[in-house]
Amino acid sequence: MRTPASRARTRTAAFGVGAALLLGGLAAPAAHADADRHKATTLDSLAQRTGRYFGSAVDNPELADTAYADLLGSEFGATTPGNGMKWYATEPRRGVFDFTAGDEIVAYAKAHHLKVRGHTLLWHSQLPSWLT
C-alpha cells in the first residue's frame, strides 16, 4: 500500500514531467514570444495553444494541502475527481447518498475556473461495503 508521502512524491514527479513535456513541446513560436512575455504562462495556457487542456486528478484530502491546491488552481485548466465521485463515496450505505466529496471538488473547480472531467464511477476495489 502506498503511503501519503509516496503519493506526494509521485504527484510532484508527475507535475515535473508534465511541465517539462509541455515547456519543451508546446513553447510559443518566436513570433509570439514578445506578445506572450507580458502574460503569465501556465501549463494550461501552453496546452491551449495547441487546442488541448492540461489537468490533474485530485482527491479531497489533497485540497487541504495548500501548496498542492495552489498549484492545481493556477497551472491547470481541468481536474478529475480521484475518488470523491465513485460509488463507495456517493452511496456509502444502500439507499443513502452523500455527494459531499464530489461537491467539494466541483466547488473548488468552479472557484478556480477549472473544467471537471469525469472518472471511473465503478471500480472493482472501491465498491461500497454493503454491496459485497
Biggest sheet, in brief?
3 strands, parallel
CA-CA gap between termini: 22 Å
How large, in whole angstroms, is the Cα Rg?
A: 17 Å
Q: Order of helices and strands, N to C?
A: HHHEHHEHHE
Query: In the CATH scheme, what's the topology name?
Result: TIM Barrel
Corresponding CATH architecture: Alpha-Beta Barrel
* Strand adjacency order, main sheet: 1-2-3
Mean pLDDT: 80
* Count of individual helical segments: 7
CATH level 1 name: Alpha Beta
DSSP summary, beta strand count: 3
Tell me the domain tally.
1
Q: Can you tell me the overall shape?
A: elongated
Please identify which CATH superfamily we are dealing with.
Glycosidases
Low-confidence stretches are 19-31
Structural class by secondary-structure content: mainly alpha
The fraction of residues in strands falls at: 5-15%
Share of helical residues = 40-55%
Q: Overview of this structure, please?
A:
The chain has 132 residues and is mainly alpha-helical. It has one domain (4-116): TIM Barrel (Alpha-Beta Barrel). It has helices at residues 4-25, 30-36, 43-48, 60-63, 66-75, 87-90, 100-111; strands at residues 55-58, 78-81, 115-116. It has a 3-stranded parallel beta sheet.
Layout of secondary structure:
Layout (H helix, E strand, L loop, with lengths): L3 H22 L4 H7 L6 H6 L6 E4 L1 H4 L2 H10 L2 E4 L5 H4 L9 H12 L3 E2 L16
Parallel strand pairs: 1-2, 2-3
